[in-house]
Amino acid sequence: MQAQLIALDWGTTSLRAYKLAADGVVLEQRALSSGIMQLPKTPRIIHGRECADGFELAFDQACGDWLDAQPDLPVIACGMVGSAQGWREAAYCETPADVANLGKSLQTVISLRGATVHIVPGVIQRSRLPNVMRGEETQVLGVLQQLPAEAGADLLIGLPGSHSKWVEVVDGCITHFDTFMTGEVFAVLSEHSILGRTQQPSSTFEAQAFDRGVQVALSADGELGVLSTVFSARTLGLTGELSPSLQADYLSGLMIGHELAALAAVQRQRRNNPNLPSIVLIGNGQLCARYSRALDACGFARVTLAEQATERGLWQLARAAGLIDSSSR
Amino acid sequence: MQAQLIALDWGTTSLRAYKLAADGVVLEQRALSSGIMQLPKTPRIIHGRECADGFELAFDQACGDWLDAQPDLPVIACGMVGSAQGWREAAYCETPADVANLGKSLQTVISLRGATVHIVPGVIQRSRLPNVMRGEETQVLGVLQQLPAEAGADLLIGLPGSHSKWVEVVDGCITHFDTFMTGEVFAVLSEHSILGRTQQPSSTFEAQAFDRGVQVALSADGELGVLSTVFSARTLGLTGELSPSLQADYLSGLMIGHELAALAAVQRQRRNNPNLPSIVLIGNGQLCARYSRALDACGFARVTLAEQATERGLWQLARAAGLIDSSSR
C-alpha cells in the first residue's frame, strides 16, 4: 500500500512516528525518546546542510527516510511540539472543539528539507478555572471516530497520565474537561517527600496494596482529603501494617482513588443522574489497568480501552485539513 | 533567678534551647540550626575528650556553658531527637495521652559530660489510619496548662507546619488528632513540579492571591479536590489571570483552603454539631497568620494564637517527671 500521511505524536518526553496508508492503515511506526524536553543535540548533515537544531534533528531521525522516499508526503503532528516551548506555537482552540475546527486551525512550520509540518493546536476551556490540553484532543477525536454518534451523551473519555484528563463530548465536540495532576504529584511525593524515603521498589504490581489505597480514599477516612490520607503511607509503615515494597502501590491507589471519587461525585452532580457515565480509557496499558481497577471500585461499571487513538485522530485531522484525499475515510 | 531546668526543642532542622527558672520563667534562650538532619560534623574537645558525634556536638553548642556553670541542671528534650533517627528512640505513647503518662515515659541518654538528657516520647493514635506526632504533644500540653479546664470540649488545637496537626483534647488528654501534609506537598510541588516553573518569588505576602486560592477551594470548583484544582495555578497563569509572582501564594491559599474545608466538614460530623470549635494555633507566626486568614474564611470564628507553648510544655513534663521541685508551678 502507498503511504499517504506521516503522523507524529510529539510530547514532552517521547516522539512517535506513524506512516499511514489509505483509511489510516498503519504501514510502519517508530518510538523515539526525542520529546521536546529531550531533543538530540549532536549536529548532523540534513538535506546537505549542517544542522544543530534539536527539532530538525529529531524530525529527521523520526521520518527523514520516509520523506527521502516520498518527499511529498504530508506531515501532521500533535502534542507539546505545538506549545510555547515547542517547534512552533499553535494557539489553543477554545471549547467546544471538534475535528472540523481543529482541522482548519493547524499551525505550520517548514523543515530544513522543505517539508511542511502541520501542528495540531491544543484546546483551552475558559471556565472559571481554565483548563488546557495538548495531544489529548487528538486522541479523543480518534476515539470518537470509532464510536456510534449516539454514544457521546453517556460517555466520559479518560486519559490517565502525569496530568490525567477527563473529557466530556457532545455530538463529536469536546465540550468540557477536567485535569488532575495525580500522576505528577505521585511522582514528586515518591521522589522528593518523606513518603519516598521508606518506599522500596517492587518488581511486580502490588494489586492488593493498590486496592487497599483505593478503598481508603472511598472510606470515611478519605473525607479528610488526600493531603491528609497520604500520611498513612508512612504511618502504616511505622506500625508494621504496610511493608516498604507495598507503599508505592498503596500510595498510587490512594491518590487515584481520591481522583476518581471526586470525579464520580462531580459527574453525578453535573449530569443530575445517580448513574455514572460509560468510560473509554486512552493511554499506557499499565496505567489504564490501574485506572480500570479503581474505576470499578468507584462504581463506574462500563469501562473499555481505546486503541490506536492517536494515529486515528491525526488521520481524521489531516483529512479535515485537506492534507489527504477526502475520499479516503 | 536561679536556673532550674534546661529545656530543648530539638526537631529535624532546628534546635532551640531554653534555660528556665522557677515557674518556667525563661532566663535565656537560643536558636541553632542543628536539627537532627543537619547536625554539626567538625570534631571538637568536649569535657576533655575528642568528640565527633553530631548529637553530642549540637548538645554542647546548645547548652554546654549552662551545664559548666550548673552541672546538676536537669535536661529535658522533645521532638525528632526521640525518633528512630534521633539521639535515642523514645517509643510513642498511645492516645489518650496527658502530662502524667507522658511525664513518666521519658527516655534517657547520658551525654559525654555525664548529664542525663530526658527525651519526651511522641504520641501514636492507633486508628485505622494511624497517626503520629513528636514535639507537637509537648506544645499541646503547654497550651492546655494556660487554659481553663472547661475549655477542652469545644477546642481544637492546630499546629501548622510541614505536616500540620489538628489535635482534639478532653480533660487535659490528647484524645484524637489528624495530620495534613499540606506544607510538605506545597514545598515539593513548588520545587519539583511543573507548577514551580512559572512561579516567581514575591518579596511580600500576596494576601489577595492567597485569599483567592482559599475561595477556590471552598467554591464549587473545589469539589474536584486538590489534585485537580492545583492545576489552575498553571492555567490561570497561561491565560494571564494570575501573574508569576502571585502563583506561590495562590497555591498556598488553595492547598490550605482544601485542608481546612475538609477539616471543617469532618469536625462538624464528628461533633454532630454545625458550630465549629474554637481554635488555638501554635507555631511560626507567618504561617499561623496564613492559617488564621483561611480559618476565618472557612467559618472558624474563634481563633487565638498560643505563645511559649513548647517551653511551657517541657516545664510541665519535667515537673510531672519529678525532675524539678514539684512545689514550683
From TrEMBL, chains A, B:
Coiled coil: none annotated. It holds the Pfam family DGOK. This is 2-dehydro-3-deoxygalactonokinase. It comes from Pseudomonas granadensis.
